[in-house]
Amino acid sequence: MKVLKLIIKNAMRHKLRSGLTAVGIAIAITAFGLLRTIIDAYFIGVEASSDTRLVTRNAVSLTFSLPLAYRDKIAKIPGVEEVSYGNWFGATYIDQKNFFPQFAVEPETFLQLYPEFILSQEEQENFIKERNACIVGRKLADKYGWQVGDTFRLTGTIYPGDWDYVIRGIYDGRDPATDESTMYFHWQYLDESLNQTAPGRTGQVGVFYVGVNNESDVVPVSDAIDNEFNNSLAETKTETEKNFQLSFVSMVGTIITAVRIISIVVIAIILLILANTMTMTARERISEYAVMKTLGFRPRHLVGLILGESTAIAVAGGLFGLLWTFLLVWQFGLFLTANVGSFFPVFELSNTTMVIGFCTSLLVGSLASVFPALQAVRLRIVDGLRRID
Asked: I need a surface site. Which of 141, 237, 274, 363 has the fewest CB within 10 A?
């Protein structure tokens, strides 16, 4: 208890210096937390992916479609439990600034493959039976003030024209990583409309969603699907849902790498800030350490005092930094949801980031005390007493 009091008194001896050091550490921890949250937001789709879902697309590019007739052949492959399909739609609401993801899907099989979209039984049934019905995520509905039963119009870009929809369900995510900023509607509604305006584009899908029985079937089923359509006019590439999502993340791989490097630099800055403070402190207290040794303090006592003071300052700064990070991420998340929610559907401070931030402050506090502690331990009493004025 006496040692703890001494640590606290030492840390508060130079209140301005300790305070500024703690603030510097807090700012650095806040920057680190924000950078980590940005990286997590990029990978949120990957984390939400299932280990038993596959995505089959055109082997040339995602921009090329596949015949709907492939579905029956895929369904007959051993290990395949369910097959659904969909198209990226790409339209705007009211004006071009109001963009959000939209997919044309086969409702019944899609909902079976994606149980993380929580809808009531009534909402599911209404969505399935009504051709121009759609479901939207909770965040998307809140953004535009939509309710079940509301109608709205989208203006097509990939598929020109005006498209009218009625909301028959607002889904909630089963997991925190589930995207709640997307709209899903009937693929048949899209295909029938194209039959009148662009007959050559009917009967085509962007991707097939394939559910397998268990994880051990992933590789053989993927190979079997691609082998089935080898040398066809539209060869396929089948991959896990996680790898499919990673292909989009890789498009901004340079940005993510840069953010990761910056986060490491931030940690180095924290270490330098605290190490500088502790070195100054040790230099000022050389005579005190000599007197303490004279009074019978062992090297372990001096190491404990220096380590405790360094860790106390680092942890205080780290805790304040985590508090600021939580508040900033919360406010920033509200801003992103209101303005660019389609790009960052989930922007939340994870428990992992908070634990890493706290452990980082502990580690930095320990490392910053190493050199001053070695100086104190190696100090000869005679040399230290010569510093007394």
From this structure: 363
